[in-house]
């Protein structure tokens, strides 16, 4: 019997997650919640570009969606810029007895040691009230920082350092809100939300703490460094014009320090043109890749290069983020109530997803 699932949010990740819910017979869509007034009343298939009339119309009412009695909600509403609202949403869903998988709120990937205990307790209380569980994940922060390095670490005899990297050209990324949040196309004397004091260590602290927990260590502190590069002239990207002198490339590191040494490092190199800062690390192939490095015995350097029949590296990475949470739905439903992480869930293997090329529809 198909799992009854409702969906919240049809942005970049949400739209692709919705496609999987509509095309995978393991799921039955019961309801759809959106925030954009123009999307209300439209069919779920239309909103995600699938040539299917589902009969499920988008609403702007979370209670109405919960009234459709789903077993799980896929929560993909924006969380970075509306964290309090996103937290309230997921607590409401959990308390109603409905499980959650989501791309946000990102802090719930692994909140311990990052989020104040009183806020964690509120989520746990809601989950206990509803006998429900929540799993939040993505790409980075996400499976590049947990699933992949844990798989490699499990083959080592000794580990000195773990480094996870995203190296990508974001010119084709059409999320204007995220690009502004990161400071792209903004003056260098303006500090964007992502680069405000403490935000990087807050946002990626979840990944650092979860890696540390998996390795059985306690980092002493989490530090960061940032480099920004201006545009050499005016040029255009997917979300609009980038003026000369505004931010066009960004490099940052978040480090989990132990005894004065970086034990865990997460690094991002993000460009809007491939010729910017050639001295920074380059992607393995094309416009973007991820790299996981383990220094130890043995040492590893593994490049992950997302690609897709439907778009470029940015599109492919978002497909991966959507697939990570949707494919985890059965495991999350079966999990004990509470906040669940990659350390808790069984390995999600892609069972039921095999399809020869002539049957591929997404």
UniProtKB/TrEMBL annotation:
A single Pfam family, by name?
DAP_DH_C
The entry's keywords: Kinase, Transferase
The source organism is: Mycobacterium angelicum
Would you say which domain of life the source belongs to?
Bacteria
List the GO molecular function terms: kinase activity
Write the protein's name.
Diacylglycerol kinase
**Top-down, what is the taxonomic lineage of the species of origin?**
Bacteria, Bacillati, Actinomycetota, Actinomycetes, Mycobacteriales
Q: Nucleotide-binding: present as a keyword of the record?
A: no
Q: Which residues form a coiled coil?
A: none
Record carries keyword Transferase: yes
Q: Which residues form the 2,4-diaminopentanoate dehydrogenase C-terminal domain?
A: 143-348
